[in-house]
Amino acid sequence: MFTCDACGIEGKGTPYLCLTCLAFWVHPTCASLHRTVRHVRHKHTLNLTYSLQAHQSDHQICELCVEKVDTKYGVYYCSTCNYVAHLSCAADGEIMDNINVPKVEDTLRNDNPEFDESVCLVAYDVKKKIMGEDGIEIAIEIKHFSHEHDLILTHELKNSDKCDGCVRPILTPLYSCTQCSFVLHKFCVELPRKKWHPLHQHPLTLSKPPYYTKRFICDACARWGNGFTYNCLKCDFDLDVNCSLISDRLTHDGHEHGLKLSNATANGNCSVCDFKGYVFRCTDCPFALDFKCATLPKSIRYGQHEHPFTLQYTLEDDSGEYYCDICEEERDQKPWFYYCADCSYPAHSECILGRYPNCKFGGAYTFDCHPHPLTFIEETKDHPQCHNCRNTCKELIYQCANVIST
Protein backbone atom coordinates (compact mmCIF):
# COMPACT_ATOMS: atom_id res chain seq x y z
CA MET A 1 0.00 0.00 0.00
CA PHE A 2 1.16 3.53 -0.70
CA THR A 3 -0.32 7.02 -0.89
CA CYS A 4 -0.05 8.56 -4.34
CA ASP A 5 1.72 11.93 -4.15
CA ALA A 6 -0.15 13.09 -7.24
CA CYS A 7 -3.78 12.51 -6.24
CA GLY A 8 -3.54 11.68 -2.51
CA ILE A 9 -5.42 8.38 -2.87
CA GLU A 10 -4.05 5.14 -1.46
CA GLY A 11 -2.99 2.63 -4.07
CA LYS A 12 -2.01 -0.98 -4.51
CA GLY A 13 0.31 -2.58 -6.97
CA THR A 14 3.51 -1.13 -8.37
CA PRO A 15 3.89 2.69 -8.29
CA TYR A 16 6.29 4.94 -10.12
CA LEU A 17 9.06 6.16 -7.80
CA CYS A 18 11.36 9.17 -8.03
CA LEU A 19 14.90 7.75 -8.04
CA THR A 20 16.42 11.06 -6.97
CA CYS A 21 14.58 11.60 -3.67
CA LEU A 22 12.99 8.15 -3.24
CA ALA A 23 10.06 9.92 -1.60
CA PHE A 24 7.67 10.64 -4.48
CA TRP A 25 5.25 7.81 -5.37
CA VAL A 26 2.53 7.99 -8.02
CA HIS A 27 -0.04 5.66 -9.58
CA PRO A 28 0.82 4.66 -13.14
CA THR A 29 -2.46 6.27 -14.24
CA CYS A 30 -1.56 9.55 -12.51
CA ALA A 31 1.86 9.50 -14.13
CA SER A 32 0.20 9.45 -17.55
CA LEU A 33 -2.34 12.24 -16.94
CA HIS A 34 -2.72 14.89 -19.66
CA ARG A 35 -1.11 18.20 -18.80
CA THR A 36 -4.01 20.11 -20.33
CA VAL A 37 -7.57 18.91 -20.72
CA ARG A 38 -10.97 20.31 -21.52
CA HIS A 39 -14.03 19.21 -19.61
CA VAL A 40 -17.67 19.42 -20.70
CA ARG A 41 -18.51 21.37 -17.52
CA HIS A 42 -16.07 24.26 -18.07
CA LYS A 43 -15.50 26.71 -20.91
CA HIS A 44 -11.68 26.95 -20.58
CA THR A 45 -8.92 24.37 -20.64
CA LEU A 46 -7.80 22.97 -17.29
CA ASN A 47 -4.09 22.70 -16.51
CA LEU A 48 -2.54 20.00 -14.36
CA THR A 49 -0.75 21.57 -11.40
CA TYR A 50 0.93 20.28 -8.26
CA SER A 51 1.58 23.71 -6.76
CA LEU A 52 -1.90 24.99 -5.98
CA GLN A 53 -1.47 26.48 -2.51
CA ALA A 54 -4.16 27.86 -0.25
CA HIS A 55 -3.15 31.47 -0.93
CA GLN A 56 -3.51 30.96 -4.70
CA SER A 57 -7.15 30.03 -4.52
CA ASP A 58 -9.80 30.82 -1.92
CA HIS A 59 -12.01 28.27 -3.67
CA GLN A 60 -10.80 24.87 -2.55
CA ILE A 61 -13.90 22.92 -3.49
CA CYS A 62 -13.86 20.61 -6.49
CA GLU A 63 -16.27 22.11 -9.02
CA LEU A 64 -17.25 18.67 -10.28
CA CYS A 65 -18.00 16.65 -7.15
CA VAL A 66 -18.43 19.65 -4.78
CA GLU A 67 -16.13 18.05 -2.20
CA LYS A 68 -13.08 19.58 -0.48
CA VAL A 69 -9.79 19.73 -2.37
CA ASP A 70 -6.52 19.00 -0.56
CA THR A 71 -4.07 21.45 -2.15
CA LYS A 72 -1.10 19.32 -1.07
CA TYR A 73 -1.83 17.13 -4.09
CA GLY A 74 -2.31 17.66 -7.79
CA VAL A 75 -5.44 19.21 -9.30
CA TYR A 76 -6.72 20.42 -12.64
CA TYR A 77 -6.94 24.20 -12.47
CA CYS A 78 -8.19 27.15 -14.51
CA SER A 79 -6.41 30.31 -13.33
CA THR A 80 -8.80 32.53 -15.31
CA CYS A 81 -11.85 31.40 -13.35
CA ASN A 82 -10.22 30.04 -10.20
CA TYR A 83 -11.78 26.69 -11.17
CA VAL A 84 -10.45 23.61 -9.36
CA ALA A 85 -11.16 19.92 -9.99
CA HIS A 86 -9.85 16.70 -8.48
CA LEU A 87 -7.68 14.69 -10.84
CA SER A 88 -10.04 11.72 -10.64
CA CYS A 89 -13.13 13.87 -11.23
CA ALA A 90 -11.75 15.63 -14.28
CA ALA A 91 -10.53 12.34 -15.76
CA ASP A 92 -13.65 10.28 -15.03
CA GLY A 93 -15.06 9.61 -18.47
CA GLU A 94 -15.93 13.22 -19.26
CA ILE A 95 -12.56 14.33 -20.56
CA MET A 96 -13.03 15.39 -24.15
CA ASP A 97 -10.44 15.30 -26.90
CA ASN A 98 -8.37 18.48 -26.78
CA ILE A 99 -8.53 18.99 -30.53
CA ASN A 100 -12.11 18.10 -31.34
CA VAL A 101 -14.07 19.54 -28.43
CA PRO A 102 -15.78 22.92 -28.86
CA LYS A 103 -15.77 25.58 -26.21
CA VAL A 104 -19.02 26.10 -24.35
CA GLU A 105 -19.59 29.44 -26.03
CA ASP A 106 -19.10 27.77 -29.42
CA THR A 107 -21.10 24.63 -28.72
CA LEU A 108 -23.37 24.97 -31.73
CA ARG A 109 -20.93 26.15 -34.36
CA ASN A 110 -21.03 24.26 -37.63
CA ASP A 111 -17.36 23.25 -37.36
CA ASN A 112 -18.20 21.20 -34.27
CA PRO A 113 -17.62 17.55 -35.28
CA GLU A 114 -20.49 16.46 -33.02
CA PHE A 115 -22.88 18.86 -34.73
CA ASP A 116 -25.31 17.29 -37.18
CA GLU A 117 -25.86 19.81 -39.97
CA SER A 118 -29.09 18.06 -40.94
CA VAL A 119 -30.65 19.29 -37.68
CA CYS A 120 -31.69 22.95 -37.75
CA LEU A 121 -31.13 24.84 -34.50
CA VAL A 122 -34.60 26.38 -34.79
CA ALA A 123 -37.34 23.84 -34.08
CA TYR A 124 -40.01 25.38 -36.33
CA ASP A 125 -40.69 27.12 -39.63
CA VAL A 126 -42.72 30.33 -39.72
CA LYS A 127 -45.79 30.10 -41.95
CA LYS A 128 -47.34 33.48 -41.18
CA LYS A 129 -46.23 36.48 -39.11
CA ILE A 130 -47.41 39.94 -38.15
CA MET A 131 -45.76 43.07 -36.81
CA GLY A 132 -46.32 43.57 -33.09
CA GLU A 133 -47.00 46.91 -31.37
CA ASP A 134 -43.36 47.11 -30.28
CA GLY A 135 -42.14 46.68 -33.85
CA ILE A 136 -41.05 43.06 -33.33
CA GLU A 137 -42.34 40.40 -35.72
CA ILE A 138 -44.59 37.74 -34.17
CA ALA A 139 -45.01 34.28 -35.69
CA ILE A 140 -48.75 33.56 -35.59
CA GLU A 141 -48.68 30.33 -37.61
CA ILE A 142 -45.83 27.82 -37.57
CA LYS A 143 -44.86 24.28 -38.58
CA HIS A 144 -43.14 22.58 -35.64
CA PHE A 145 -40.91 19.55 -36.16
CA SER A 146 -42.87 17.55 -33.57
CA HIS A 147 -46.31 17.74 -35.16
CA GLU A 148 -47.83 16.96 -38.55
CA HIS A 149 -50.22 19.95 -38.59
CA ASP A 150 -49.58 23.69 -38.50
CA LEU A 151 -49.90 25.42 -35.11
CA ILE A 152 -51.65 28.75 -34.45
CA LEU A 153 -50.62 31.29 -31.79
CA THR A 154 -53.43 31.90 -29.32
CA HIS A 155 -54.03 33.45 -25.90
CA GLU A 156 -57.04 31.23 -25.21
CA LEU A 157 -56.64 28.14 -23.06
CA LYS A 158 -57.57 24.91 -24.84
CA ASN A 159 -59.17 21.76 -23.49
CA SER A 160 -55.73 20.18 -23.09
CA ASP A 161 -54.56 20.25 -19.50
CA LYS A 162 -50.85 19.86 -20.27
CA CYS A 163 -48.33 21.10 -22.82
CA ASP A 164 -47.16 18.36 -25.19
CA GLY A 165 -43.58 19.60 -24.84
CA CYS A 166 -42.78 20.18 -21.16
CA VAL A 167 -45.90 18.32 -19.88
CA ARG A 168 -46.63 21.14 -17.43
CA PRO A 169 -50.07 22.76 -17.02
CA ILE A 170 -51.07 24.90 -19.99
CA LEU A 171 -50.43 28.65 -19.74
CA THR A 172 -50.76 31.37 -22.35
CA PRO A 173 -49.40 32.34 -24.81
CA LEU A 174 -49.45 29.00 -26.60
CA TYR A 175 -49.50 27.42 -30.02
CA SER A 176 -52.37 25.01 -30.68
CA CYS A 177 -53.45 22.74 -33.49
CA THR A 178 -56.83 23.44 -35.06
CA GLN A 179 -57.17 19.83 -36.23
CA CYS A 180 -56.38 17.97 -32.98
CA SER A 181 -55.64 18.54 -29.30
CA PHE A 182 -51.87 19.10 -29.69
CA VAL A 183 -50.68 22.21 -27.86
CA LEU A 184 -47.32 23.78 -26.98
CA HIS A 185 -46.33 26.68 -24.76
CA LYS A 186 -44.73 29.49 -26.75
CA PHE A 187 -41.66 28.94 -24.58
CA CYS A 188 -41.49 25.26 -25.60
CA VAL A 189 -41.85 26.15 -29.28
CA GLU A 190 -38.79 28.37 -28.96
CA LEU A 191 -36.58 25.74 -27.29
CA PRO A 192 -33.33 25.23 -29.26
CA ARG A 193 -33.18 22.03 -31.29
CA LYS A 194 -29.62 21.37 -30.17
CA LYS A 195 -27.90 22.07 -26.84
CA TRP A 196 -25.21 20.95 -24.43
CA HIS A 197 -25.85 19.98 -20.83
CA PRO A 198 -23.29 19.42 -18.04
CA LEU A 199 -24.71 15.94 -17.34
CA HIS A 200 -23.58 14.59 -20.71
CA GLN A 201 -20.49 14.76 -22.88
CA HIS A 202 -22.30 14.88 -26.25
CA PRO A 203 -24.66 17.50 -27.69
CA LEU A 204 -28.33 16.71 -27.13
CA THR A 205 -31.10 16.99 -29.72
CA LEU A 206 -34.65 18.07 -28.90
CA SER A 207 -37.04 15.39 -30.12
CA LYS A 208 -40.16 13.42 -29.42
CA PRO A 209 -39.34 10.18 -27.55
CA PRO A 210 -37.29 8.26 -30.17
CA TYR A 211 -38.33 4.86 -28.84
CA TYR A 212 -40.93 2.29 -29.83
CA THR A 213 -42.81 2.83 -26.55
CA LYS A 214 -43.08 6.59 -27.29
CA ARG A 215 -41.94 7.41 -23.75
CA PHE A 216 -38.64 7.61 -21.88
CA ILE A 217 -37.07 7.79 -18.43
CA CYS A 218 -35.26 11.07 -17.75
CA ASP A 219 -31.65 10.35 -16.78
CA ALA A 220 -31.63 13.32 -14.39
CA CYS A 221 -34.83 12.88 -12.35
CA ALA A 222 -35.57 9.19 -13.14
CA ARG A 223 -39.20 9.99 -14.01
CA TRP A 224 -41.16 8.57 -16.91
CA GLY A 225 -42.08 11.14 -19.52
CA ASN A 226 -43.71 11.32 -22.96
CA GLY A 227 -43.14 14.98 -23.79
CA PHE A 228 -40.03 16.36 -25.47
CA THR A 229 -36.65 14.89 -24.62
CA TYR A 230 -33.17 16.28 -25.14
CA ASN A 231 -31.70 13.04 -26.39
CA CYS A 232 -28.35 11.51 -27.30
CA LEU A 233 -29.13 8.51 -29.48
CA LYS A 234 -25.52 7.36 -29.31
CA CYS A 235 -25.77 6.85 -25.55
CA ASP A 236 -29.53 6.40 -25.00
CA PHE A 237 -29.38 9.49 -22.78
CA ASP A 238 -32.53 11.53 -22.17
CA LEU A 239 -33.37 14.75 -20.33
CA ASP A 240 -36.91 16.03 -20.04
CA VAL A 241 -37.45 19.71 -20.79
CA ASN A 242 -37.63 20.83 -17.16
CA CYS A 243 -34.41 19.09 -16.14
CA SER A 244 -32.62 20.37 -19.25
CA LEU A 245 -33.24 23.96 -18.16
CA ILE A 246 -31.07 23.56 -15.03
CA SER A 247 -27.34 23.93 -15.58
CA ASP A 248 -24.55 23.25 -13.08
CA ARG A 249 -25.49 26.14 -10.76
CA LEU A 250 -28.79 26.33 -8.92
CA THR A 251 -30.40 28.91 -6.67
CA HIS A 252 -33.51 27.48 -5.05
CA ASP A 253 -36.05 29.00 -2.66
CA GLY A 254 -35.87 25.82 -0.60
CA HIS A 255 -32.28 26.47 0.53
CA GLU A 256 -30.46 29.59 1.66
CA HIS A 257 -27.17 28.85 -0.12
CA GLY A 258 -26.26 28.39 -3.75
CA LEU A 259 -25.98 24.81 -5.02
CA LYS A 260 -23.58 23.15 -7.47
CA LEU A 261 -24.14 20.08 -9.60
CA SER A 262 -22.12 17.12 -8.36
CA ASN A 263 -20.63 14.79 -10.96
CA ALA A 264 -21.75 11.22 -11.55
CA THR A 265 -19.03 9.65 -9.41
CA ALA A 266 -20.26 11.58 -6.39
CA ASN A 267 -23.96 10.78 -6.65
CA GLY A 268 -25.63 11.11 -3.27
CA ASN A 269 -28.93 11.16 -1.48
CA CYS A 270 -31.29 14.11 -1.76
CA SER A 271 -31.79 15.82 1.61
CA VAL A 272 -35.49 16.30 0.85
CA CYS A 273 -36.70 12.96 -0.55
CA ASP A 274 -33.66 10.70 0.05
CA PHE A 275 -33.55 9.70 -3.63
CA LYS A 276 -30.07 8.59 -4.73
CA GLY A 277 -28.94 10.03 -8.03
CA TYR A 278 -27.60 13.24 -9.54
CA VAL A 279 -27.71 15.97 -6.90
CA PHE A 280 -26.86 19.63 -6.42
CA ARG A 281 -24.63 20.06 -3.38
CA CYS A 282 -24.18 22.99 -1.04
CA THR A 283 -20.60 24.02 -0.32
CA ASP A 284 -21.56 25.67 2.98
CA CYS A 285 -23.56 22.86 4.60
CA PRO A 286 -24.37 19.16 4.01
CA PHE A 287 -27.51 19.87 1.92
CA ALA A 288 -28.15 18.08 -1.38
CA LEU A 289 -31.05 18.43 -3.80
CA ASP A 290 -31.93 16.07 -6.64
CA PHE A 291 -33.45 17.02 -10.00
CA LYS A 292 -36.87 15.63 -9.07
CA CYS A 293 -37.22 18.00 -6.12
CA ALA A 294 -35.44 20.87 -7.87
CA THR A 295 -38.04 20.83 -10.67
CA LEU A 296 -41.17 20.66 -8.50
CA PRO A 297 -43.57 23.46 -9.58
CA LYS A 298 -43.63 26.31 -7.06
CA SER A 299 -47.36 26.80 -7.53
CA ILE A 300 -49.96 24.51 -9.08
CA ARG A 301 -53.69 23.95 -9.23
CA TYR A 302 -55.32 20.70 -8.24
CA GLY A 303 -58.59 19.33 -9.56
CA GLN A 304 -61.56 21.51 -8.72
CA HIS A 305 -59.90 23.14 -5.71
CA GLU A 306 -60.63 26.86 -5.68
CA HIS A 307 -57.13 28.11 -4.83
CA PRO A 308 -53.65 27.27 -6.09
CA PHE A 309 -51.30 25.15 -3.97
CA THR A 310 -47.85 26.49 -3.11
CA LEU A 311 -44.75 24.36 -2.57
CA GLN A 312 -43.74 24.50 1.11
CA TYR A 313 -40.23 23.84 2.42
CA THR A 314 -40.98 23.92 6.15
CA LEU A 315 -43.78 22.45 8.26
CA GLU A 316 -46.97 24.46 8.52
CA ASP A 317 -47.10 24.39 12.34
CA ASP A 318 -45.50 22.78 15.42
CA SER A 319 -48.30 20.34 16.21
CA GLY A 320 -46.11 17.28 15.67
CA GLU A 321 -48.83 15.55 13.63
CA TYR A 322 -48.96 16.09 9.90
CA TYR A 323 -51.39 14.56 7.41
CA CYS A 324 -52.21 14.86 3.73
CA ASP A 325 -55.77 16.14 3.27
CA ILE A 326 -56.10 14.31 -0.05
CA CYS A 327 -55.12 10.73 0.84
CA GLU A 328 -55.55 11.29 4.60
CA GLU A 329 -52.28 9.46 5.25
CA GLU A 330 -49.62 10.74 7.64
CA ARG A 331 -46.93 12.93 6.08
CA ASP A 332 -43.21 12.45 6.64
CA GLN A 333 -41.79 15.64 8.14
CA LYS A 334 -38.78 15.83 5.80
CA PRO A 335 -40.16 15.99 2.22
CA TRP A 336 -41.52 19.24 0.83
CA PHE A 337 -45.28 19.39 0.41
CA TYR A 338 -48.00 21.50 -1.21
CA TYR A 339 -50.21 23.79 0.84
CA CYS A 340 -53.29 25.94 0.28
CA ALA A 341 -52.97 28.74 2.83
CA ASP A 342 -56.53 29.96 2.20
CA CYS A 343 -57.98 26.63 3.29
CA SER A 344 -55.17 25.36 5.56
CA TYR A 345 -55.01 22.37 3.23
CA PRO A 346 -51.70 20.40 3.12
CA ALA A 347 -50.99 17.59 0.63
CA HIS A 348 -48.24 15.23 -0.48
CA SER A 349 -46.51 16.39 -3.65
CA GLU A 350 -47.37 13.04 -5.28
CA CYS A 351 -51.03 13.44 -4.37
CA ILE A 352 -51.09 16.84 -6.06
CA LEU A 353 -48.94 16.00 -9.09
CA GLY A 354 -49.83 12.32 -9.54
CA ARG A 355 -47.48 9.37 -9.83
CA TYR A 356 -46.42 10.36 -13.35
CA PRO A 357 -46.34 14.16 -13.51
CA ASN A 358 -44.20 14.14 -16.67
CA CYS A 359 -46.69 12.03 -18.64
CA LYS A 360 -49.62 13.39 -20.63
CA PHE A 361 -52.29 10.72 -20.82
CA GLY A 362 -54.81 10.34 -23.61
CA GLY A 363 -54.02 11.04 -27.26
CA ALA A 364 -53.99 8.64 -30.18
CA TYR A 365 -50.83 6.66 -30.98
CA THR A 366 -50.25 4.28 -33.86
CA PHE A 367 -48.27 1.05 -33.57
CA ASP A 368 -47.48 -1.56 -36.20
CA CYS A 369 -48.89 -4.27 -33.96
CA HIS A 370 -52.48 -2.98 -34.03
CA PRO A 371 -54.76 -1.55 -36.78
CA HIS A 372 -56.50 1.04 -34.54
CA PRO A 373 -55.14 4.08 -32.67
CA LEU A 374 -54.10 3.38 -29.07
CA THR A 375 -54.72 5.71 -26.13
CA PHE A 376 -52.10 6.19 -23.42
CA ILE A 377 -53.61 5.54 -19.96
CA GLU A 378 -52.11 5.36 -16.50
CA GLU A 379 -53.64 2.06 -15.41
CA THR A 380 -56.69 -0.17 -15.70
CA LYS A 381 -58.77 -1.84 -13.00
CA ASP A 382 -58.77 -5.27 -14.60
CA HIS A 383 -55.00 -5.48 -15.39
CA PRO A 384 -55.32 -7.10 -18.84
CA GLN A 385 -52.65 -9.17 -20.54
CA CYS A 386 -50.35 -7.38 -22.97
CA HIS A 387 -51.02 -8.57 -26.54
CA ASN A 388 -47.29 -8.41 -27.35
CA CYS A 389 -45.31 -9.77 -24.39
CA ARG A 390 -48.24 -11.54 -22.65
CA ASN A 391 -47.29 -10.03 -19.29
CA THR A 392 -49.90 -8.35 -17.09
CA CYS A 393 -50.46 -4.65 -17.85
CA LYS A 394 -50.44 -2.79 -14.54
CA GLU A 395 -49.63 0.82 -15.40
CA LEU A 396 -48.54 3.07 -18.27
CA ILE A 397 -50.60 1.21 -20.83
CA TYR A 398 -51.60 1.75 -24.45
CA GLN A 399 -55.17 0.59 -24.98
CA CYS A 400 -57.27 0.52 -28.12
CA ALA A 401 -59.39 3.66 -28.33
CA ASN A 402 -62.30 1.56 -29.60
CA VAL A 403 -62.26 -0.48 -26.37
CA ILE A 404 -62.16 2.65 -24.19
CA SER A 405 -65.06 4.29 -26.05
CA THR A 406 -67.24 1.25 -25.51
From TrEMBL:
Sample GO molecular function, one term: zinc ion binding
Residues spanning the membrane: none
Keywords assigned by UniProt, alphabetized: Metal-binding, Repeat, Zinc, Zinc-finger
Statement: the UniProt record of this protein carries the keyword Zinc: yes
Domain Phorbol-ester/DAG-type: 306-359
Pfam family name, one: C1_2
Source taxon at top rank: Eukaryota
InterPro entries, sorted: C1-like_sf (IPR046349), DC1 (IPR004146), PKC_DAG/PE (IPR002219), Vacuole_Formation_Reg (IPR053192), Znf_PHD (IPR001965)
PANTHER family xrefs: CYSTEINE/HISTIDINE-RICH C1 DOMAIN FAMILY PROTEIN (PTHR32410), DC1 DOMAIN-CONTAINING PROTEIN (PTHR32410:SF163)
Listed name of the protein: Phorbol-ester/DAG-type domain-containing protein
